[in-house]
Amino acid sequence: MQRYSGFGLAKHTLSHHENWERQWRNPTPKKQYDVIIVGGGGHGLATAYYLAKEHGITNVAVVEKGWLGGGNTARNTTIVRSNYLWDESAALYEHAMKLWEGLSQDLNYNVMFSQRGVMNLGHTLQDMRDIQRRVNANRLNGIDGEVLTPEQIQEIVPIMDCSKNARYPILGASWQPRAGVARHDAVAWGYARAADALGVDLLQNTEVTGFKIRDGRVYGVHTNRGDIEAKTVGCVAAGNSGVLAGMAGFRLPLESHPLQALVSEPLKPILDTVVMSNHVHGYISQTDKGDLVIGAGIDGYNGYGQRGSYPTVEHTLQAIVEMFPIFSRVRMNRQWGGIVDTCPDACPILSATPVKGLFFNCGWGTGGFKATPGSGHVFAWTLAKNQAHPLAAPFSIDRFHTGALVDEHGAAGVAH
Amino acid sequence: MFLIYCPYCEEHREEEEFHPKGQAHIARPADPEACSDKEWGDYLFFRDNPRGIHHELWVHAVGCRKFFNVTRNTVSYEILESYRVGEQPRFTAEHPEGRPVETVAAENVTAKAEVVERQEGVKA
Fold it and tell me: Whose C-alpha in A157, A308, B55, B85 is 20 to 30 A from the C-alpha of B25?
């Protein structure tokens, strides 16, 4: 792999940037691998990278039906934070946060991770009680967090309407300074390039059409480019996880919903942090290019259409204009949807399945992007050692029968 | 924006008047106390999540406030039918073109009789 550096950039100017090598190969599938990862998004590519880097398992294929990072990895609002309420989820997301902090160096790829802080607003007394409880829980878990007063909020975000005359006055907020945003495409590409350099085969346009299962054990997958064999298969397919589980003959407690986001035309720098509100239901940040990135709630019905409904767009923009009257005449450029796999307890499933050798990493629902490095890291450990990583153990699929749910609904500052 | 036909109001109304309430036709276990953890977990948390034809429960929240069922394609989002709670769908994954109206009507008569019988049982 050609290492990226300032010197390299200068050197390539001499040849008019025409001799950069391709970031990854486009190999023909082999007949057999040690591990197959189904799904070439951020989580799948991260899993492949950590399998190769931390566990020395390099005979790995990532099987992707479209192109790398073309699903939810490129459809989210790029927010990264770890201020979750419960110990189990806080540990998992904080693990991810620590990996984020060194990710660009680790991958030799600028993922533009910017720790600009995330603010979760409270508009009611109950919001404020929840915020205080969550911030205290975070601090006990060693995660940074503060409770802000409206005056402090106004100082950080001068353009926000913090007046008492607002329809839903802002009473305070939780604030995680280490949280922020990252460039989502770069995360997928960085992991892909680094995994490829370690020998992982990235098989694009290769759709899994079924699993090869004998005596309750998986030994490969059927694809549109022929059969591929492996004793261990990890599925990281987000919204399509339920469809894959159906092929393997079991059910998952997941429902796929469209979750949409939209970006405005580029503006001059005006918002240098991330603002989220559960109550009026919207979240917003500004990219380095200047677009406002605005997130919405999920559509309540199941769908695989990768587009959102107009009523949801309208509600979200009402929320944004409520908080930021200054944005009332900003024009929106693009709007899109991703298919999120929501779990009944709003926590992921990182688990073995009734089929031996077949593992699922899914159910991240509306908040998977922030977990990308941590999810890949613990899932690679799980695949390599054939047992759940200690951080993944609480997220076994068994919890829906034992009742040991990790109920993060509403508690995590999740605006859905 | 969906235009949804409410089988009680007998009108097409805009999506915003309705709320989706998840999968339709989920039978509550007849004897919940006798359920194993597996059965109870399946009943509470495991839902169909098909790519294609799906039967779901909707409520006409700012209209008649009644619950009814909708058959919808989760990929194209096409709404194939609305029908009242207790009735059977015409369009199913096995019959995407729709079953004959008479067959469905006959089934609905039987289903209604069963419901009445069950309710009588509860009263007794």
Answer: A308
Whole-angstrom Cα distance, residue A267 to residue A324? 14
- Cβ distance B74 to A310 less than 8 Å, yes or no, reads no
Three-state DSSP class for residue B43: helix
Q: Which of A257, A326, A330, A327 is nearest to A296 (CA)?
A: A257
Domain count within chain B: 1
Q: Which amino acid would we find at residue A385? A: K
Averaged over A361-369, what is the pLDDT? 94
CB < 8 Å to A238, chain B = none
Per CB-CB distance under 8 Å, the chain B contacts of A240 are 51
CB B29 within 8 A of CB B39: yes
Condensed to tens digits (0 to 9), the pLDDT of residues A186-210 reads 999 999 999 999 999 999 999 999 9
Does the CA dihedral A255-A44-A37-A56 come out positive or negative?
negative
Read off the pLDDT of residues A325-342 as tens digits, 9 standing for 90 and up: 999 999 999 999 999 999
Share of chain A above pLDDT 70, in %: 98
Q: Kindly report the CATH number assigned to the domain that includes residue B74.
A: 3.30.2270.10
Distance from the A274 Cα atom to the nearest Cα atom in chain B, whole angstroms: 29
Task: Report the pLDDT value the prediction gives residue B115, as an integer from 0 to 100.
Answer: 74
Q: Chain A residues with CB inside 8 Å of B46's CB? A: 251-253, 400
Q: What's the one-letter identity of residue A214?
A: R
Helices A184-197 and A42-55, interaxial angle, to 10°?
A: 30
Name, in order, each residue with C-beta under 8 angstroms of A359's C-beta and a sequence gap of 6 or more. Answer: A232, A233, A234, A235, A351, A352, A353, A379, A382, A383
- Give the C-alpha separation, A124 to A146, whole Å: 18
Tokens representing A58 are 């390099």
What residues make up the domain containing B46? Answer: 3-123
Q: What is the number of other CB atoms lying within 10 angstroms of the CB of residue A201?
A: 24
Q: What is the pLDDT of residues A310-321, one digit of tens each?
A: 999 999 999 999
Tell me which residue in A243, A253, A302 faces B54 most closely, judged by beta carbons.
A302
Residue B109, pLDDT score: 87
Are the C-beta atoms of B1 and B14 separated by less than 8 Å? yes
From CA A77, how far away is CA A295, in angstroms rounded?
Answer: 6
pLDDT value at A104 more than 70: yes
Q: Residue A145 pairs with which residues in a beta bridge?
A: none
| CB-CB neighbors (< 8 A) of A311 in chain B | 1, 15-16
Q: Is the pTM here over 0.90, yes or no?
A: yes
- Count Cβ–Cβ pairs < 8 Å, chain A vs chain B: 58
Residue A382 contacts residue A389 (beta carbons within 8 Å): yes
Closest chain A residue to the Cα of B73, Cα to Cα: A303
Question: Alpha-carbon distance A68 to A45, whole Å?
Answer: 8
Interchain pair A253, B47: CB under 8 A: yes
User: What is the pLDDT at residue B110?
Assistant: 84
